[in-house]
Fold:
Amino acid sequence: MESAQRVVHRSGLFSRLLVVLVGMAVLLLGYSLFRENLSARLTRDWPWKLKLLDIQSAVTAVLGTGGAALARAQYARTVRPAIGYGGRVVANTAPNERLAWACKLLNGGHEVAITADTGYWIGYTSARRAAGAVDSSEWMSQPEATAAIVSRGLAERQDFQLNLVGRGYPIPGQGQLFLGWFTEKAMRDLESVYVRVRVVDRVGDVHERVVNLLKGADRSPTHPEASPF
Structure:
């Protein structure tokens, strides 16, 4: 279920259009080269009598559009976010001074990333499944995921909390996004809580990362952990 960061959609204006222009330039060059090598008799008839570009202009078009495509690809690599995840035991989040496993998303890139969508997938422990709990069958919104967990007897903002991340929420470069926290009681019932985060970078590409908020979690915390940041 977990996945590395990947691009799920590229900007049509700044990506596909350039590919189309490169393809057209290559076709023009091919046509010009082929026409240049035809006999004079054939170039007097259609369609070969049609001269679109001379070879020099066609080569210039290929180099220009190809260079623009390469420049766009390089710029996209420069501004793309680097989405990571981390969690630790904290003492000042859950009520009644209970310890909780808190989770954050990190944008390790240097440019802002704009949240486009978040989805949740809940998996229960074997004991809870034996008691009737059913794992998710599709991605859910934050309210739906919260309601599903509450239906198993856990209290929101008492035993767990999934942070509501609205569409358009900015994650600055080198910035963090708080995702939620879980107490020991919640982690006895929840085997995994996957979050699918999609963000848009400056060139309009959509990046996706799926993380398990309970991966590596200390399910029986005894003391808080120091912040690594």
Strands lie at 3-9, 83-90, 100-107, 113-124, 160-162, 170-171, 175-183, 190-200, 206-212.
